Amino acid sequence: MPMMKEEILRVENVTSRIDGITYLDNINFHVFKGEIMGLIPLNNHGKKQLIELIAQNKSIKFGRIYFNETLVNYYEHSNMTNNKVYVIDKETKLIESLKVTDNINVLNNQFNEHIIHEKKLQEKTDQLLKEMGVKIRANEYISALSMFEKTIIELIKALITGAQLIILNELASFLSIEELGVFQELMLPYARKGTAFIYIANHHEEAFKICDRVCLLENGSVIKVIDQKDFSVETIQPYIIAFDRHSSTHESKSFQGIFECHHFKTEHLNDISFSVRRGECVTLLDVNNKGIQDIAEILQGSFQPISGELLLDGQRIDPISVGNLLENKVVFIPENPVKNMLFYHMSYLENVTFLMDYKLKTYVIPKRVLKSIKEEYHLLMGNDIDVKDIRTLDAKSLYQLAYYRVEIFNPKVVFIMQPFADADMYLRGSIVKLINRLKNKGSAVIILAVNIADTLTVSDRLLMMENGVFLKNYDKSELSHVRL
């Protein structure tokens, strides 16, 4: 007889309401010991609340939750206890000012020694890192580690603290393709030993590579569970939005102009050069997630390249500063622009016209210009344009606000850092349309990415970078063959 699988988590008919909003609606699913359960949120409604509820037994309206085959939470009583669950996501829980060994061993609820033997702990940690094949020293400070290294330390900490279930929240939004592959290899032996994982991903191709089963989550409910034997595009197709590739029409227009990067060299860029024409979108895919970080910091004025130059229509942009880039109509959209671009003490109209002073070279925007913008964009923005408190808007409207601000500026070049990071499927569809609008209006678009999911839907070319050099240039005809 086949051995019965042991259940680590069962969420049974759970409904969760907070301040009158239903975040989880009669949700049902379970996870076995040693299983990697995929979770694909078609929208992000309820995702945060589900993660919190699995980790801690908070109050629920209906249903029951079992952990390690024990009833730990039900609608009549929630004791707020923590389950043996560890969540790994972009927001690290490590203490930056402490060493690796201190984070792993001392800041650990399993650690009960009254006298701390630093040398003994360091040797223990070094041995564990060596067993995993990880080249991180136990006496290094967390602040000196890369995001990838911090993620590995979080995995080790989760295992040492006795976590029976580890939730991995959208690793591809902050790890490169290379890093993601290494991390997946590191977690597999522990899954085989019985540790369970919930692997939250925004793209089915990523989840299908590593997971045993996949749940589709929409509006706080599991709408479909797909077994590994049924992993296929045909199975998931009815539940996802298909984004048409290359839906921009820039080829039918005669946009002139070209943006060039010549012989850029930094700590992580090794003499790279590339060019982009107006109306074209090029994705720079960084396998190591280091080179594009340097580009982003240069565009934000953090430092200058060791050597190299930027040219627009043959004219050098010198110096490379935020103000000078804006004067030349070169704009940078950071990762998560809703958090990093918008001013929440300003109205919608004040936000959307924020760059107009550079365009008009005046500190006061004339009322006739504001009136013209309202009339032109009212069909796109609807009543949002009259909103005084933008905190009342949903994520889609806030993303539109950030991109419309750039569009109104009429830039010649737009750099976009990780445009699809942390976005659910419906929001990604909206971002695709916003990027295509920039292309159709003649902007040269350069996407800085560590993961190619959805960037191919807007890209005309893909430049793959590793260790600061370009390995391959995929043109438009080859993009359909590029895989995640």
TrEMBL record:
The keyword ATP-binding applies. Transmembrane segments: none annotated. InterPro entries: ABC_carbohydrate_import_ATPase, ABC_transporter-like_ATP-bd, P-loop_NTPase. GO terms for molecular function: ATP binding; ATP hydrolysis activity. Residues 9-244, 253-484 form the ABC transporter domain. Keywords: ATP-binding, Nucleotide-binding. It comes from the Bacteria. SUPFAM superfamilies: P-loop containing nucleoside triphosphate hydrolases. The keyword Nucleotide-binding applies. PANTHER family: CARBOHYDRATE TRANSPORT ATP-BINDING PROTEIN MG119-RELATED, SUGAR ABC TRANSPORTER ATP-BINDING PROTEIN. This is Monosaccharide ABC transporter ATP-binding protein, CUT2 family. The lineage of its organism: Bacteria, Bacillati, Bacillota, Clostridia, Eubacteriales.
